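Risk register update: the risk that structure generation would not scale has been downgraded. Supporting records follow, first protein first.
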Amino acid sequence: MSLPAAFVSVIMIWSTTPLAIKWSALGVGFSFAVFARMAIGTMLSILLLLVLRIRFPLHRKAQHSYLASGLSMFGAMALTYWSAQFVSSGMISVMFGLSPLLTSLGAALWLKEEAITLNKLAGMLLGLMGLVLVFQGGLGLGNGAVMGLVALLIAVMMQSFGLVWIKKIGDDSPPLATTLGSLSVALPLFLAAWWIADGHWPASLPERAVAATVYLGMFGSVLGFALYYYMIKHMDTGRIALITLLTPVIALLLGHGFNHEAVLPHVWFGTVFILLGLGMHRWGSAWLRAFRVSRD
């Protein structure tokens, strides 16, 4: 698959993932929902590797990459599913819109890919202002929403710095192999989390929850992550993280249209600031040069 096609596919998958997370936990609980998703993803990854005869490297660098991606996947997804009990699907996507700013900061400090220029700093400040507005919107939804937002912020940090960690390792394993390796690390942790949090098979399995879990297992965990790791190998970290430039708005609209989620004004304003921050962070220098040329 070409990089542009992979880029668009991941945008669509990540835009629908927050709503699917909400639906997958209906009647079954968040811990079982995320464990079932990862179990489906693991089995499908094994099947695809066998059918497509893709190698599964076990050298030291590959193992290090599986460990890094698996741990960040577990931390980010466990906190995201837990927070979905208290916040809307659109809010989840808005919070993950901050990941490019955090990823770029980590890449600048750890990978030395880019310097933290004035426009990048301005973008981070705009993103921080957006985060404050989103939290203000969460205050109107009760204490549970604030706790959910805090958990989401930690999840975003874990995913962002996990991406930088994987990039630092520089493993050249096939993307699908990296997906399976990551799931193999994360799945036992999700099983343990379900056993501790609940440990009981759901009394019923609503059709919507089953459909959402299968969708997440197939597309969110396998196709989405495989394309994600494919882009990590062929694109710089900052550009990969820009996938979240469009997903917050799309996810907010999907949550409002299909799940009747209320979107408070603070959240819309916060989303605008976050997107402006992303734009300033990535294209601020070009905007400034264009402005100077137009004045001259």
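Supporting record for the second protein:
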Amino acid sequence: MTKDEFVSRFGGVFEHSPWVAERAFDAGVARPLTAGGVHGAMVAVFRAAAEAERLAVLRAHPDLAGKLAIAGELTEDSRKEQAGAGLDRLTADEHVRFTTLNSAYVETFGFPFIIAVKGLNKDDILKSFETRINNDRNTEFATASAQVERIALLRLTGLLPEGR
């Protein structure tokens, strides 16, 4: 697989951040390609990146049940993930609650609330939202980064065999 092919296939795993895939390829991804192997290489790149670059990855994520979802402008992965958690079927009151929490969270931390929603429902997500909004910024930056890494693994598992 060429670098262009690799980036084309895996460049969206870290939301709108193909540089992660580019650097992982340049660093040498173990063959054969497996979800665990590609994930490990991409996580190493993400963790080694400058804080400003990691922050840009966090900021590339959409608000949960936010404006992009309403406008139908989520990436296909994000749309499927949010729909799987029922975020596309919120009541009017639930939508107001998500919007209020999204705004408060971004104002507090400077990036959107990020959670790997697979296996969660809207109540689980709201509970986590309401808990995490009380974290300090360093804790929440680390938590959001770990969630980005989890989302990447879930996406890669859909694209590749799971081995390491």
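The chain has nine helices and no strands. On this basis the risk owner (M.S.) recommends closing the item.
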